[in-house]
Amino acid sequence: MDQQLKKLMKELGEAINESLSDSEQIADVVSKIKSGGYDIFLVLEATIGFNKREDEVPAGKPAPVGAGTAGSDPQFAINSQDVKFLKSLRISVDES
């Protein structure tokens, strides 16, 4: 993993932690729990995924689906990200 991505991941974690720490609503509920005689600890787990984009969209507007010369079949392309998404929905894809 490149250093820039590691740095950004660390910044994201710090931003999430800071936003939770600064939340008045969370602080209020924690205070109520403590005043009820309970000790509290909070563990949050976040799953953040990163995938390197394979297909870069060229500058400008992409052509709408079905655009092309009259009478030609529209171009349809599916990339690995599309396949992963469809499989997560339990949709099988003929990858040929």
List keywords for this structure.
96 residues, mainly alpha
Task: Give an overview of the whole structure.
The chain has 96 residues and is mostly helical. The protein has one domain (3-51, 62-88). Helices cover 42% and strands 0% of the residues. The chain is built from three helices and no strands. The longest helix has 19 residues, at 3-21. The two termini are 30 Å apart.
Q: What average pLDDT do the residues reach?
A: 79
Number of strands: 0
SSE order: HHH
* Shape assignment: elongated
How many DSSP H or I helices?
3
Through-space gap between termini: 30 Å
C-alpha Rg, in Å?
23 Å
How many structural units, i.e. domains? Answer: 1
Largest β sheet strand count, sense and barrel closure: none
Quote the beta fraction.
under 5%
Helix-strand category: mainly alpha
Poorly predicted sequence stretches spanning 5 or more consecutive residues: none
Q: Percent of residues in helical segments?
A: 40-55%
Topology diagram in text:
Blueprint (H helix, E strand, L loop, with lengths): L2 H19 L2 H12 L44 H9 L8
In short:
By secondary structure, the chain is mainly α.
